[in-house]
């Protein structure tokens, strides 16, 4: 996507330092933590269909269960699962897969009747998709996380160097094909950047590789923001970008327009984005939700729950929206989405 250092893209670099501050606490709780809770047996919505991003390593994370009570949201996308330096998964490359704050949050979300999608990747940091040398090894890393948390869905947020590498794009597609073959009940979402009119050449190539492999992704999801074009109508460009995505998926997979809409989605960014002059207002987002409902999109999300509040003294762009809003306005708007 872009080459500039956006705040959404800086998040893992920030997490690396934030993770150090919590490392001691994580070690202290690792031995005493119970095993990961199982997901609820009855779930009204498909896993991951309406799941905003939440990150615990930085950005002053709120209590997930408090957000659930305040908004009615039932699902979260937990960010980010990265590499430990090799082909093993660690939260933000710094926190153990189980036994720490992430597991505690997931257990609490499930105890309250909710569930999670785990997101792999992001803009920065050390990616499993790059560190695992083969599709089978990468699938093995994904499988460790699926097994550890009995996941019903995963999100591969493929960005930056990983997205720009044809080798990594193919490895990711091949690994996800293995996951779908071995885990028929696990939904797979693939999230990547976009232009205002749909996927760029790399995005279209990723979709074509998926189709050629026979990968039945549950949603190809774009991030319709950070266009670096100044002030634009973010509701309109989200719709045009998803329309372009739909056309790319329809063409690659031989689907009707209606069927293709049901295989795509998007993840927005609430408030001020990383591009100067670009803002997603609450009304913009509500318009996006209505559009999604009308086309029955398979996944809608936004970056992020941590940012879903107005800024106060000393808060940064990873912890607030930069606009005038009430706490969790965007999460409340997403909570009504049912596909």
Explain this structure.
The chain contains twelve helices and eleven strands. The model is unreliable at 1-31 (pLDDT under 50). The protein has 339 residues and is an alpha/beta fold. The strands form two sheets. Strands 1, 2, 3, 4, 5, 6, 7, 8 and 11 form a nine-stranded mixed β-sheet that branches.
| Strands, count | 11
- Helical percentage: 40-55%
Assembly type? single chain
Distance between the termini: 28 Å
Work out the helix count. Answer: 12
Structural class: alpha/beta
| Main pleated-sheet profile | 9 strands, mixed
| Uncertain parts | 1-31
Rounded mean pLDDT score: 91
Essential attributes:
single chain, alpha/beta, two-stranded antiparallel sheet, disordered N terminus
Could you give a short description of this structure?
This protein is an alpha/beta fold and 339 residues long. Helix content is 42%, strand content 17%.
How do the helices and strands line up, and which of them pair or pack?
Layout: H1 7-30, E1 53-55, H2 64-71, E2 75-83, E3 89-91, H3 101-111, E4 115-122, H4 128-131, H5 135-149, E5 153-158, H6 160-164, H7 166-182, E6 187-193, H8 201-213, E7 219-223, H9 234-253, H10 257-261, E8 264-269, E9 271-272, E10 279-280, H11 282-295, E11 299-303, H12 329-335
Parallel strand pairs: 1-2, 2-4, 4-5, 5-6, 6-7, 7-8, 8-11
Antiparallel strand pairs: 2-3, 9-10
Helix pairs in contact: 5-7, 7-8, 8-9, 9-11, 11-12
């Amino acid at each position: 996507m872009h080459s500039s250092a956006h705040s959404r893209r800086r998040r893992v670099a920030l997490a690396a330092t934030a993770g150090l501050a919590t490392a001691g606490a994580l070690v202290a709780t690792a031995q005493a933590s119970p095993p990961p809770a199982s997901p609820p047996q009855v779930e009204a919505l498909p896993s991951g269909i309406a799941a905003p991003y939440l990150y615990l390593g930085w950005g002053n994370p709120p209590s997930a269960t408090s957000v659930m009570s305040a908004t009615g949201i039932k699902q979260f996308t937990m960010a980010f699962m990265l590499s430990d330096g090799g082909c093993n998964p660690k939260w933000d490359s710094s926190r153990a897969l189980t036994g720490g704050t992430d597991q505690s949050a997931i257990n609490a979300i499930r105890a309250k009747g909710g569930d999670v999608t785990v997101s792999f990747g992001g803009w920065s940091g050390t990616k499993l998709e790059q560190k695992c040398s083969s599709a089978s090894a990468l699938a093995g890393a994904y499988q460790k996380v699926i097994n550890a948390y009995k996941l019903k869905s995963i999100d591969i947020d493929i960005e930056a160097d990983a997205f720009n590498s044809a080798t990594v794009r193919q490895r990711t597609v091949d690994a996800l094909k293995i996951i779908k073959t071995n885990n028929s009940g696990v939904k797979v979402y693939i999230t990547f950047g976009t232009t205002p009119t749909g996927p760029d050449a790399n995005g279209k190539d990723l979709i074509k590789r998926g189709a050629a492999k026979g990968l039945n992704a549950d949603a190809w999801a774009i991030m319709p923001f950070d266009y670096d074009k100044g002030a634009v109508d973010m509701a309109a460009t989200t719709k045009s970008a998803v329309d372009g995505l739909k056309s790319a998926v329809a063409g690659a997979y031989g689907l009707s327009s209606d069927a293709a809409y049901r295989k795509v989605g998007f993840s927005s960014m609430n408030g001020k984005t990383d591009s100067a002059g670009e803002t997603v207002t609450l009304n913009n987002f509500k318009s996006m939700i209505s559009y999604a409902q009308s086309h029955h999109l398979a996944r809608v999300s936004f970056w992020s729950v941590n940012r879903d509040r107005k800024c106060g003294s000393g808060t940064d762009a990873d912890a607030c929206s930069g606009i005038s809003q009430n706490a969790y306005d965007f999460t409340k708007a997403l909570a009504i989405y049912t596909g």
